[in-house]
Amino acid sequence: MSGSTAARTGPVMSLLASASDGAVVEIPAGSYREQLSIARPVTLVAAEGPGSVTIALERPCAVRADTEMRGLTIEGAGLMAGGEVRLKLSDCVVRGAATTGVGLRDDARLRAERSRITSVDGNGLFLGGNATARLSGCELGESAFSAVHLAGHADLELEDCVVSASREHGVRATEASSLRIDGGTIRGSGLSGISAETTGRVVLSGCTVHGTERAGILVGAGTTARIEHCRIEEAGGSALVVWTGATARARGVVVAGAGKNGVFFAADAHGEFEDCEISGTAYPAVHVGERADPVLRSLHIHDVDQDLDITATARPRLEGVRVSQVTVSTLPAPERGEARQEPARTLDELIAQLNSLIGLDSVKRDVTAMINVMRLARRRIELGLPPPPTNRHLVFAGNPGTGKTTVARLYGKILHALGMIEHGHLVETDRGMLVGEYVGHTAPKTTAVFRKALGGVLFIDEAYSLAPVGGGNDFGQEAVATLVKLMEDHRDEVVVIVAGYPGDMRRFIDSNPGLASRFTRTLLFDDYSADQLAEIVRNQVVEHRYELGPGTDAAIIRFFASQRREAGFGNGRSARQLFQTLTERHAQRTALIAEPTAPDLIVLLPDDVPGTPTPPEADGR
Fold first, then answer.
1. pTM for this entry
2. Origin, by domain of life (predicted)?
3. Which of 66, 120, 181, 321 could form a disulfide with 86 if both were Cys (CB 3.0 to 4.6 A apart)?
């Protein structure tokens, strides 16, 4: 038999027919066109090495006995094995099959090394029944269906393989099949890179999934998957999807670029992610759906527009999550370390700090009364008695600059000291941070801000702007409705304080029945008197190491007494603005002194108070 490359008919089958069971059959170099069917144990070897023998098939080759192929190229149709057949491929190519490239059913077993299955009009590799396969250093690509499809109780291991250019999934495991991928790359899939929709075992380790049209890795409903040290790059959809009822345990996973979320937890999904990194996502880095309860530990999120998108009823646990280069962070402040910047203070110290505030006598009385009720409630709980009814949400009604934010911050710390809330941090917000620009945008924005305040206080300034006069189709109504629902869902986890002008706040509370039932207590912040504003200025003077000269204090009081209390009057802000003006006028005055003394640099004079004539230029001393 010559080594000509001309097409031949029947020589390979002739060799098989004359071979004994278990024989090694060397096939001379050449191209052969015939129909193979292997019914006895045999080893087929390309006599002159890999690529020297091509066998063109019209129909799939039925492998009915243990078979080993070395260095052969099979084209036009694939290899099909069933029963308890053991098939081994080394340095082989299966290409151009009109249906499946290599298919196994029943209890068939495949071991493939350094082989390639490509350009097929079905699945590259299909396993069904109880079939098993172990592929090492192989390539599977250019398939019309999924490059690898598992069904039944099939079991597959891919080690350092490359799966590419499948029109559907790269690797898909269904029914009760098991999948293990160790190393290698899955790239260019028309759907998901890896789709695990199975009740069987799924372990992915050290592999890279790149450039998928949809999800990088999908953990389907009811599936449990372990994913370690994998990298998901440039997914067209979400990089890693954990679907309803699924569980994913991930360690050392890196997500770099995604057309949607980095990690998407659907409703009722579970998981534990540790030492993972997410960056470059078009949607929030992590989405946690309704009732999902993943643990996110030592997660680093960076270079994204938003870090977390957590739905109202989700219950994630965040431990050591870090963010950097994030435009909108919804991570709770204590998680970012903001609440740990100040040393914790005792309840008595916080009450003393409250009582040291200038003015606000009625506010201090109201807060003290609430503290007493909450102390009593805590004591009754300790004794096994039901606590008295309390409503911690408050309305702060007052003009600008009357200390509303300062009291809100102290109130949160007091509640934390009483054990009523977990952290006690303050999250300040307003209409601009809650209301979206288009339909469907407001509820996620409001939820994101609300989530930041969990365990602390959400302070909404100028809250009345959420219910503008006339109403209509303003998106503020959607923000209010979302807040009401979130307050109900998290009634024991957060305190909400709404603030604004007294008249406007009454209208705001009346705009929604849910608000009226949740905000039953209003604290009224009165305007500061002239003496109280002067005292604020005195505190600023001491803090910045200035002194008031003779008559300056009286000039300051006269200044505030002469001010018209119109809409733009800022109360405490006006006092701080006056102090800044005093220092500026003082600087202009001392600049004219050739050699100013220490008192010249420290003492503020009546002439520094606005309304007092500016002193004439002085001669240098």
1. 0.68
2. Bacteria
3. 66
